[in-house]
Amino acid sequence: MPAGGRWQTVRWREVPLTRRRTARFVAVSAVAGLVVAAGAVSAAGPWDGGQRKAERVRAAAADRAHSARTAPARPPAGPVLAGPVTGGRAPTADAVAEALEPLLKDPALGPHVSASVVDAARGERLFGADEGAALTPASTIKLATSAAALAALGGDHRIETSVLLTDDGIVLVGGGDPTLTARPAASGERFASLPALADATVRALAARGTARTRLTYDVSRYAGPVQHPIGPNDNLAPVTPLMVDEGRLDDSDHGPAPRSADPAGDAARAFAGLLGERGVRVDGEPVEGRAPASARRLAAVSSAPLSELVERALTNSDNDIAEALARQTALADGRPAGFDGAARAVAARLARLGLPADGVRIADGSGLDRSDRVSADLLARLLSLASSARAPELRPVVTGLPVAGFSGTLRGRYADAAEGRGLVRAKTGTLTGVNTLAGTVVAAGGRLLAFAFMADGTADPEAAQRALDRLAAGVASVR
Asked: For the whole model, what pTM was predicted?
C-alpha cells in the first residue's frame, strides 16, 4: 500500500470498453444470431417494456457506430438466455461441483476464493465454497444498494429537482438526482434536464412579471461529508444532492472522468447562466442556503424512474448513481442521508429481504470503500430473489446486469470463455487485489441459476477476471 494509506486510484477503476456511449442490451438485437427466448424474457423482464428504456433509441445507433470505429471483431454469438426460469431440469449439486471445483483452483484467483450457486426457481443452493465468508465485494455491492432502494421506494419512484419562490428570490433545491443534465437530451432519454427546468422557471417568473431575481441553492437533503473516504477521485464526484452530469468536467457520460470539486455550486452557476440566456437576470453569484418553510413551488423536473436508474447504475457500474440510491434509501427510512445513515438503511433493507446477514458490513453504496463486506451467498441469494416471482419489485436488479461480451462492464470480456458470451449476465467488481462477479445464467439444461464468485487477494486483475469469466461459463455448461 502506498504512503498515506490509500491504494492507487488507477487500479480501482471499473472501466467499460466504451467511454462515450452505453452499450445497452437492446442493441444486441443488431448482432446476427442473437435470439432471446420468450420464456427468458418473461423471466428477466420485457426489454422493450422494462429494460434500459431511457437509452433504448440511442443505444442501437450509437453502439453500432462506435463498434464500427473501435471494437475488435467478435466471435460468433451463441444462444442467449435460452429457457425460462422454471423450465428445464435442475442440475444436480454434484454436476455443478464437477464443473466448478477445478476452475476454483486457478492460481489467478489467489489464496481466498468464495463461491455460491443457487437455483433461482427454488432458491436452493446447489454449490458453495466458503460461501458464507464476508469478503470485500467491490462494485458487486451495487446489487445490494439497488435492491435496497427498490425495496424501499419501488421502481416507479422519481427524484425531483425543484425551484422554489421566496420573498428574497428563488431557491434551486437538489433532491439527489445525479443524472440531472445540462446537455441536450439524446433521443429517447428521459433524464431530468436543467435547461428544461430553466424554461419552466422563466415561464413561471414571467407570469409574475419578474425578470430579475436572486438565486440560492439548497443541498440540505443530504447529511454528513460530501467526500467519499477515498478522497477526490475520478470514479466519483463529491456526493451532493445537487449536481449536473455527475460533476463531470469532460463530455463523458460514464466511466472515470475528471470531477468538479464543487458540483452543487457549479450546477447553480450553470442554472443562473441558463436563466440569463432566457431573459431573467440573476443578481450576484448564487449562494448556498436553505429554502424557508414558506417557500412556494415554482417549477420542477423529475429523474427517470428508479428502475431505470438502477439499470444504468448496474450496467455501467455507475458510482454516482449508486451513492444516490443509497441515500434515497436512507431518506425513505427516515435516516440521515449521509454515508453512515445510507449504509445503515441499506443493511436494514437487506435484512428485511431475508438475506444472509452474517458478517455483512455496508460502508458505502458504490463499493469503492474497501471496508464493505458481504458474502457470495448473500449476492447469489439476492439475485435468485430478484429473478423470481417472490420479489417482482427487485426485477431491475436482473434486467440491469451487463451481458457477457456485449454490454456495460462485460462488453470487453469473455474472449477466453466464449461459451459464456451472451449467456452470462453479471455485475463485475474490481479493486486492487479484489475481483468479484455475481449474476445469472441459464444452464445447459434450461434452468436459471444465480451465482457469485469472490476473490480477495488477487495479484493480476486481468488474469483474475478471465478466471471468473471461466467460472461463470462453467455454470452455463452444467446439465
From this structure: 0.84
